[in-house]
Amino acid sequence: MIKVSPSILSADFVNLERDIRALAPAGADYVHIDVMDGEFVPNITIGIPVIAAIRKITWLPLDVHLMIDRPIRYVDDFCKAGADILTIHLEADTPENTRRALEKIRANGVKAALSIKPKTPAEAVVPYLPLCSLILVMTVEPGFGGQSFMEDMMPKVRAIRGWIEKDSLDCELEVDGGVNETTARICTAAGADVLVAGSAYFKAPDKAAFVRAVKKTM
Questions:
Q1: pTM over cut 0.90
Q2: Mean pLDDT over all residues of the chain?
Q3: What are the pLDDT digits (tens) for 82-99?
Q4: Active site residue 176
């Protein structure tokens, strides 16, 4: 089953509560929350207090994507703030600290997830797959919304799907970046089962119809 995780980076921040409360009635499965620190990526967004506030206004799982340097410093705090899925970037720290961070997330009872940027090879996730409940493949360079979809990332998605199925892992495969009704079909054909949609979702005149269309791409 395809899941849709709208990225609130593209929401109306003046009316953020309204936009978040509207996600579940529209058929969304997760709330995708991009956390950026201005170091790992050249942008700054939201932090731990906002995650805690969002937790109070929706029952949807919070799909928190940390685009921050050395995330091991903060994973406990983000878990306690209410993340249901907590994604760290493989490129943000040493292999040892990446493994430790994933283990800390799992110890908090939160689903541990790992993301890779476009230039990172698919093989880089293999040592961490047994620790992950989700792998996130970026189909844009992380840091800003509204970028164009990179279809050349699909071999990476297919490779990771193959490893997940080979070892019968309970691990979702998410794609983030430039997802719309057309590119969603490309992603699901490659093996993705969770799709992050930002501007395409929030600009859709009928958001429920958009979600239904994306879910039918399988």
A1: yes
A2: 96
A3: 999 999 999 999 999 999
A4: yes
